Amino acid sequence: MADSRGEGGGCCPPMDLFRSEEMHLVQLIIPIESAHLTVSYLGDIGLIQFKDLNSEKSPFQRTYAAQIKKCGEMARKLRFFKEQMEKAGVEPSKIPNPQADINMDDLEFKLGELEAELVEVNANDEKLQRAYNELVEYTLVLRKAGEFFSSAHISAAAHQREIGSRQSGEGSLETPLLDQEISADSSKQVKLGFLTGLVSKEKSLAFERIIFRATRGNVFLKQAAIEEPVTDPVSGEKVEKNVFVIFYSGERAKTKILKICDAFGANRYPFSEDVNKQGQMITQVSGRLTEMKTTIDAGSLQRNSLLKTIGERYEQWNSLVKKEKSVYHVLNTLSLDVTKKCLVGEGWSPVFASKQIQDALYRASIDSNSQVGSIFQLLDTKEAPPTYFQTNKFTSAFQEIVSAYGVAKYREANPAVYTIVTFPFLFAVMFGDWGHGICLLLATLVLVAREKKLSSQKLGDITAMAFGGRYTILMMSLFSIYTGLIYNEFFSIPFPLFAPSAYGCRDPSCEDSTTIGLIKVRDTYPFGVDPAWHGTRSELPFLNSLKMKMSILLGVAQMNLGIIMSYVNAIYFKSSLNIWFQFIPQMIFFNSLFGYLSVLIIMKWVAGSQADLYHVMIYMFLSPTDELGENQLFPGQKNTQMVLLLLALVAVPWMLFPKPFLLKREYEKTHQGQSYAPLPSTDESAELEAAHDGSHGGHGEFEFSEVFVHQMIHTIEFVLGAVSNTASYLRLWALSLAHSELSSVFYEKVLLLAWGFNNVFILIIGIIVFVFATVGVLLVMETLSAFLHALRLHWVEFQNKFYEGDGYSFIPFSFALIDFEEE
């Protein structure tokens, strides 16, 4: 196939996208000493998909399980480094670091050292940070509790002075009695203990309530809120907290309070009643805070320096570990030969890649100094090969649209070739407005112009989807401009771009009229819809009729293309049964009804006839022998319709009955006399049995009933689908009408209405509403709606005529693909 690409004679190059690349099953016999390097070189070219020859073994029983475990451990360390760099705001260097090949054992040792050093630095930093946060909280407790105690002392002294002044003013008879009472009370005084600390503000009410209930109210609790959130020493998060002071009596009350503090996560700190000691403690804590801050800053500098050193080499190390791990995964799919000196591998590769693979094997043997070269040979198999299309940045999005429905069967015709044109065109039929198309085009050109920058960035889901389909959207916008010019709509406003309108006023009295008095005064408008149609009473009936008939013509044309593609597939796969009993009856049935309807539509347009096509098609079935009268479009139409109806009726049993019987006869002819064949030897018996199972896909006898039911389902599906699929294309008309009417509503009821108020402020508001409505509804929601409907028309109405889509993708072992994957 590589030669055919080079020759490609004639006027046209070969259509590589039309059918998937030719594949073959290859076998590689690789000496163990060069196996690692060989697989690494094959990963560089990325053109072979290995088969797992050890599928019966668990991952732990395979040859290179230990090496994969080692690579997994190195990958874990690299993920740890990445998390730490993200926390510290250190970006890994994107510039490749030129360096000689790194030995994996040295890298493992290096990563282990760096991890141990980073873990130690983190642990020290965590301890210092926790101690620092505790000192900050302690400072707050000293200040708030000190304020509380000083205010309490002041109020107590004032209270004592008040009592003293009151006693000095009393009579002498009462004085001895009061003295005795006071002395008696002073003898009963109890020493109170207290606790200070901080508790979360949101838990403070519950904290106070629980302490009150646990001590039966025998406590005095005072709380003071801290203005700014503080960093909690345990969690490291910013939390709003209250400083509390609890006075209690007795050890039992203290024990309960301590347990409640632990339960609520309240941090307790010692506090002295002595004012002098309070000042000393504040001074000591402030000094320790300064020292701690200096130590933490020095540790952070050391940590950042270490992370920058790692960041310079991170990408290189990460890529190397990923590649190494993938190489060992592939080596685990290879099987050891009986001598245990070679590894045997099998895999699918494109035919054109044979020379590249052989060159890689040869280079690996030379570079690894292997005394024995690797062997490359082809294997015969009846297994279906994988499907591989070579796409570029333009065609890949269209191929993804097709593959999302189902991966093409090996070498079957690829709908993506036609989807490149038909998909954006059908979208544009529903989205036709050249003003909206230009907006879409400008947005897409931004993505195309910045594709190099955006392709190297990590994008969000929606942005990544739009960027991946940028060329699809580009085609959609160009076709939308084209169909918008045909509809003559620019944000629903018509413009006489190509010539003046063909219609003019019969007399001066109709100058301001858009509904009556117009006659044809010039040649027909050369391209698209005449601008005079817009705004007339007959605009909607005219455009409805035009777009509805156009939708049917486009649908019949695309479905005919799908049926013709089934013929192309049948020719390629040499299936005469599919040609005679699928393609021919399907073409006859479909075109006898809907192909004939399309011809009638064109004839009606050409002749300018007033024939009612609804009446013609309905009575073609109900009363085929009745005269057509004024609905007749050409001589002999009645006889033609009877012949077409007869052909459609004949085509149904033609599709249904012959194929199952012919398949049964073919099977019997192929297997005739096999029951009386001589018995093979024991060694050959198992091989023939396996070959027989493989050739028949694992099925036993030919099940005629199953084949017949299958054929009947396909026939019913096609007959009913011919009607429903044609009706489904009317969505082109419906969405085009909806888009046009929404655009008219936004223009007339928002922009023109705001203009009519002759107020600048209202006009600005109207323009803003119009822009947001146009972008949000017409350029986003309508784009998505038209995209989904175009997708459905391709998947259901077009592709089901020929596309099986039951293949599986070619997924080669390639380092280029691994680099984009997340661990």
UniProtKB/TrEMBL annotation:
The entry's keywords: Coiled coil, Hydrogen ion transport, Ion transport, Membrane, Transmembrane, Transmembrane helix, Transport
A Gene Ontology cellular-component term: vacuolar proton-transporting V-type ATPase, V0 domain
One annotated GO biological process: vacuolar acidification
Pfam families, sorted: V_ATPase_I (PF01496)
Coiled coil: 104-131
Membrane topology reported for the UniProt record: Multi-pass membrane protein
The keyword Coiled coil is assigned to this record: yes
GO molecular function: ATPase binding; proton-transporting ATPase activity, rotational mechanism
Transit peptide keyword on record: no
Stretches that traverse the bilayer: 425-448, 469-487, 550-572, 642-662, 760-781
InterPro entries: V-ATPase_116kDa_su, V-type_ATPase_116kDa_su_euka
Subcellular location: Membrane
Family: Belongs to the V-ATPase 116 kDa subunit family.
Job description of the protein: Essential component of the vacuolar proton pump (V-ATPase), a multimeric enzyme that catalyzes the translocation of protons across the membranes. Required for assembly and activity of the V-ATPase.
Protein name: V-type proton ATPase subunit a
Organism of origin: Linum trigynum
Upper lineage: Eukaryota, Viridiplantae, Streptophyta, Embryophyta, Tracheophyta
